[in-house]
Design a protein that fits this description.
With 242 residues, the protein is of the alpha/beta class. Helix content is 40%, strand content 15%. The radius of gyration is 18 Å and the shape is globular.
Length: 242
């Protein structure tokens, strides 16, 4: 008799989750937050977000995990991630090139369900990631929209290079551009629950309030917020005493 694990995930090994990341290098990560906070603090925050994101995705049973990054970040991220996680250098520059690289590398043969996930939403419920993989059983593409017009994840079962063409990638029209390309390619699209990533102070304040109630969702990030709320009134007001 098959176990419940086998029944629920008969092809668990066909699931690949790829984190879109940069090396936690001062001046290159979370640049909008760095306009309001010390650069070193923002760099430390990004490292915490990335570490917590790694813990989140590794909690998914039967899912292979990799990191896609700019070529010049690959060596440093390999040290951060550890030997157990594959780190792949993207082909070309920018987010569109990175996403294209994810699916050309991992989905070209059509044998895997591949999810590309950002590195700054470790507070996302793990059930949302699981549901994204399940949606790929019925759709060509799955998207996790953000409240600001972007998306925190995108998944597919095959490589569609034209899916990420256009000027909207990385802006507040990124989701519209992606969906327009999907329509041109006649791809069916499923959606996970809308969510938010951490790009500006308002996002950070919202995260502080959430992690006050459940710090275990992103413990490294919660610890960072606890240290920095003393000098950031926005976080202190939103998050109380973390």
């Amino acid at each position: 008799m098959e176990s419940s694990e086998t029944i629920m995930h008969p092809r668990a090994t066909d699931r690949m989750l790829v984190i879109m990341a940069k090396a936690p290098r001062p001046g290159t990560v979370k640049t909008r937050l760095a306009q309001k906070l010390p650069v070193d603090a923002v760099t430390e925050l990004y490292r915490c977000l990335l570490d917590d994101t790694m813990s989140l995705v590794l909690s998914l049973p039967g899912v292979k995990v990799a990191i896609m990054c700019p070529a010049f970040d690959a060596e440093e991220l390999a040290r951060v991630a550890g030997a157990a996680t594959l780190v792949v250098a993207q082909q070309g520059e920018g987010l569109a090139a990175a996403l294209t690289s994810v699916f050309s590398r991992f989905a070209a043969d059509g044998r895997q369900r591949v999810i590309a996930f950002n590195s700054d939403s470790p507070h996302l419920p793990v059930s949302v990631l699981a549901s994204a993989f399940e949606m790929l059983s019925a759709h060509d593409v799955v998207v996790g929209p953000t409240h600001d017009g972007g998306y925190y994840l995108v998944g597919a079962k095959a490589a569609y290079p034209a899916l990420f063409h256009g000027d909207g990638i990385g802006t507040n029209s990124a989701l519209d551009a992606l969906l327009a390309n999907a329509r041109k390619l006649q791809l069916s699209v499923g959606f996970t629950a809308p969510f938010y990533d951490v790009d500006v102070e308002g996002d950070l304040a919202r995260l502080a309030a959430e992690l006050l109630l459940a710090p275990s969702r992103a413990p490294r990030t919660a610890a960072w917020l606890k240290r920095w709320q003393r000098v950031m009134p926005q976080l202190r007001n939103a998050g109380g005493n973390l």
